[in-house]
Amino acid sequence: MEVAGLDNNQIKVKSLKAGSTPIREKDLDKLLKAGLASHRLAFTTNYKDLVGAELFFLAVGTPSLTSGRIDLSQIKSATDALAAVIEHTDGYPIVVVKSTVVPGTARDLKKRLETLSAKKAGVDFGVCSNPEFLREGSAIHDTLHPDRIVLGVEDARTSRVMKDFCKRFYGKNTPEIVETDHSTAELVKYASNAFLATKVSFTNLMARICEKLPQSNIDEVAHAMGLDPRIGGLFLEAGPGFGGSCFPKDVQALVTYAEGLGVDSSFLRAVQKINETQPNHVLSLSKDSLGELTGKVVAVLGVSFKPGTDDIRESRAIKLIEVLLRDGARPRIYDPNALENAKEILGSSVTYCKSALQCIFGAEMVVIMNAEPEFKKLKPEDFLRLMKQPVVIDTRRMYRPDEFDGKIRLISVGRSGQVQ
Ligand code: UGA
């Protein structure tokens, strides 16, 4: 197979051509370099270079608008530019929609392509909805080992070509291919993300209950629940809530879309409410020991939306830092990957630190937001030695209470018996 990647951002294309990835993603550099070296991978900003391709994967962003709807402007302009390519491409080119889009979008794009290319869908070209389920941080692994492939196809030739392509790409590891219409495929993506987000908010709700019970621990509750195969053990990890460029945006888009259809979405709104209030809830756990936050030096460890990434989009840590600033605290922050991105949002309102140890120095409270393996290396004596007042909020339960002696106040999200 030969692959050409197109982006309208010249800087990104230039850097990709030079073998450098504009995002941080495990194994991506290696894969990019191998692709370039094989001369079967190229990058361009010019749509004309795509004429003659057999498959066109549309993977542009669909960010949120303030109304909660998704912004389809990028996918519409990319489709319009592709129409000219389709017009000049012989054979049966197929446009594959990878971007996360609400039901009905692929059908609209198909009409747009027909009008602009003067060709007929199902006769001269095909359209396939093929939602993406990869996670940031394990994108390459997830792409190469999918649990399922969803193909929203509405003509026999597109169905055949796409299934052949998947079988050629995945060989004997081809997972179950679910073939359906466009709208169902589009909804599968939202339903999947909304369900996973629901699991996280549900667990955080149970965690709040655990905090009020004597000797209760959310991890034990989640573990025991997860042993039931009907529930499943994944995405039951309590913490500061879900962030990232997908869950918050997709739950909101689904709420807006469903309500537009007249479907009551209070269930999903409850999922959002738990998530939105979780950073405040985390801070409220310290009220007994720390009192008001005004003037207090608070160290925040972990700024990205999850460990191992520099992505801070919708990160709960950023929300927490905003609450700290609003309440007059003086945040010191550290993250092994995400500080450059954090600077763009937080500017000079916080102190940036070069290490976890430097970050906790002089702090009156430490809040651990991410389960970065590096944070686990901090020893109780580090907190005692370096902090002004050793109050530690551990949102990911990285430390066991018995690791800390009575001199440190360890407050773990989802655990009772907060006082040591
Ligand atoms: C998510 C989905 O997991 C992917 O399947 C999907 O393809 C992707 O969105 C997308 O739509 O593009 P991602 O946003 O990379 O992937 O991140 P996740 O690993 O799912 O984590 C999302 C958030 O939930 C993070 O903030 C994470 O810390 C939080 N989380 C996750 C928990 O708090 N507890 C858990 O048990 C699991």
Explain how this protein is built.
The protein has 420 residues and is an alpha/beta fold. It folds into 3 domains: 46-180, Rossmann fold, CATH 3.40.50.720; 189-276, NAD(P)-binding Rossmann-like Domain (Rossmann fold, 3-Layer(aba) Sandwich), CATH 3.40.50; 279-412, Rossmann fold (3-Layer(aba) Sandwich), CATH 3.40.50. Helix content is 43%, strand content 13%. It contains 16 helices and 13 strands. The termini are far apart. Bound molecules: uridine-5'-diphosphate-glucuronic acid. The site of uridine-5'-diphosphate-glucuronic acid (UGA) has 20 residues, from helix 7.
Per-chain topology:
Blueprint: E1 3-6, H1 10-17, H2 28-38, E2 41-44, E3 55-58, H3 73-87, E4 94-97, H4 105-117, E5 126-129, H5 139-144, E6 148-153, H6 156-170, E7 176-180, H7 182-212, H8 218-226, H9 247-260, H10 266-284, H11 287-290, E8 297-301, H12 316-326, E9 330-334, H13 339-346, E10 351-352, H14 356-360, E11 365-368, H15 373-376, H16 380-386, E12 391-394, E13 409-412
Parallel strand pairs: 1-2, 3-4, 4-5, 6-7, 8-9, 8-11, 9-10, 11-12, 12-13
Antiparallel strand pairs: 5-6
Helix pairs in contact: 3-4, 7-9, 7-10, 9-10, 10-12
Bound molecules: uridine-5'-diphosphate-glucuronic acid.
Can you count the beta strands? Answer: 13
| CATH superfamily annotation of the largest domain | NAD(P)-binding Rossmann-like Domain
Radius of gyration: 24 Å
Give me the CATH architecture of the largest domain, please.
Answer: 3-Layer(aba) Sandwich
Helix residue percentage: 40-55%
Number of domains: 3
